[in-house]
Amino acid sequence: MIKISNLKSQISNILRIGNWKLEIGNSRVKREEGFTLVELLSVIMIVTVVGGIIGAILISTLTGTNKTNSLENVRQNGNYALLQVSKTIEFSRNFYGVSTDGINYITDCTQLPVSPTPTPVQYANIKIMSDNGQNVVFSCNLGDISSNSASLIDTNTVTASSCFFTCSQESIVQPPTIGINFTLAGARAGNFVENKTSVPFSTTVTLRNLKISTN
């Protein structure tokens, strides 16, 4: 009886040891099912790279949109100013001259035939009588283009970085040809490269309705 009792005790101990080992094995399996440090670092790196790529795409898209909007605004202002000035001069009824200071105007734009051809004089003002009989002075001011002191551009969004008129004439009895030249740029460019957009505008017009007396 004693031997049987001891045998049962030994069997019971063996079963307990087996259960303990099984529990340890299961615990190890559970631990092996989790993420290792290397795996976590790899996931973090992938997420960081993908996030950086998406961020770069968004920034590039926004930059391109801002540059396009700024360029379109500059072009709209420039085309409007160029059209207003050129058409008013082309169909003007009288020419009162061009001026560098807004005070002294000259009406004779003929030049002596010399070689090489001299650089045209750049004027800041031109004075004419429009087709409706109104006296009009177009002026290139600091950062602005104006008609009788009224701005022809939206100075809140664009600025004239350069502006001048030229005047040429084949002879005193021929109507003068006026050159209109200016460059517009975004007024709020700041440090943003996409807003630093400048566009040159240029055209020449001859006063078609001007009648010059030969007497």
Provide keyphrases for this structure.
8 strands; 40% helix; 3-stranded antiparallel sheet; alpha+beta; 215 residues
Q: What does this protein look like?
A:
With 215 residues, the chain is an alpha+beta fold. The chain folds into two domains: 2-34; 47-206, no CATH class. It is built from two helices and eight strands; from the N terminus they run H-H-E-E-E-E-E-E-E-E. It has helices spanning 2-32, 37-90, and strands spanning 94-99, 125-129, 135-141, 144-147, 150-151, 158-168, 177-186, 198-206. The strands form two sheets. The protein has a five-stranded antiparallel β-sheet with strand order 1-2-3-4-5, with helices on one face. It has a three-stranded antiparallel β-sheet with strand order 6-7-8, covered by helices on one side. The chain is rod-shaped. 18% of the residues are buried.
The shape is rod-shaped
Major sheet strand order? 1-2-3-4-5
Tell me what portion of residues adopts beta-strand conformation: 25-35%
Order of helices and strands: HHEEEEEEEE
How many beta-strand runs? Answer: 8
Describe how the helices and strands are arranged.
Blueprint: H1 2-32, H2 37-90, E1 94-99, E2 125-129, E3 135-141, E4 144-147, E5 150-151, E6 158-168, E7 177-186, E8 198-206
Antiparallel strand pairs: 1-2, 2-3, 3-4, 4-5, 6-7, 7-8
